[in-house]
Amino acid sequence: MKIKCDYCDNYIELTDEKCECCGAPNSQYKRTANSQPETIEQLKDWYAAHNLPDEEVTRFFIGKNYRGARAFGIYQDINGDFVVYKNKSDGSRAERYRGDDEAFAVNELYQKLRSEIANQKARNGKSSSSSILNETMKKLNKAIGIWFVIFFGTAFISVFFVNMKDNHKEGYYRYNDTYYYHYDNHFYYYDDYDDEWSKYSGDFTEEVDDYYVDEDVPTDVDSFKSSQAYEKAYQDYVERQSYDDDDWDSGSSWDSSDSWDSGSTDWSSDW
Question: If you compute the radius of gyration of the chain from its CA atoms, what whole number of angstroms results?
């Protein structure tokens, strides 16, 4: 991922410590180099340090070209390219990234692994909360009657739906003859006249998921991931993640008393 140098406007890699043109320090470097793994070996160490279950349980294969179904992974091929992939339930493979930027490739799998840990922790917490809730509801039912239980049950369900997250798939959408791209919980639209991508601030009047096209670039638009809009969005994403790293790492080690259910992962999507 390339960014502009703050001093000479030369493009440098996000992971460069300083600009190779003018020698100025990269203001983004510290935010990406502190605790986040940048190599496959560092990612292996991070995985082990967080007490995660065996790879056969989590289905994350770091440094391996695993060919079986239901797997995430990263490896370096014989040509030197770093490959980040997902094997779906049917055994087909979707490549998330293929290229020579190891830090970028590692970050793609690292963020996915973090997301899966959060999902698994939430699933375990949900199961525990459900048991507590069931016991509480029984006591309420005995103590003050069924109508009070119904009242609080309705309130609980309402809070659940209010807190549902944006869960649109990343990729291209076509709605009312305009192309959109969903990335990091935001939509961006393509301006045919200026050949530029911009953040979309409006609302869709229909179910936007019905207009999903693909993650591949449509033939009649410029790639979103080659645009300045993506460059800014990605920098914001990295900055936000790096600021959260210290707090997140302090509570991210896996609790051996929890169970990891890889069957709860969506294995039909490309990522």
Answer: 22
CA distance 123 to 267: 17
DSSP assignment string, 16-66 = -SB-TTT--B-TTHHHHHSSS--SHHHHHHHHHHTTPPPHHHH-EEET---
The alpha carbon dihedral of 25, 26, 31, 32 has a sign of negative
Q: Could you state, in order of their start, the residue ranges of all structural domains in the chain?
A: 1-34, 35-134, 171-249
Indicate yes or no: pTM above 0.85. Answer: no
Q: Is 91 helix (H, G, I), strand (E, B) or coil?
A: coil
User: Is 269 in a helix, a strand, or coil?
Assistant: coil
Rounded-to-10 torsion of CA 123, 124, 129, 134: 90
The pLDDT tens digits of the residues spanning 74-107 come to 999 999 999 999 999 999 999 999 999 999 999 9
Calpha distance 114→119 (Å, rounded):
9
pLDDT given for residue 165 in this prediction: 43
Distance CA 141, CA 149 (A): 6
Per-position b or e across 52-90, b if 16+ CB within 10 A of its CB? bbebeebbbbbeeebeeebbbbbbeeeeeebbbbbbbee
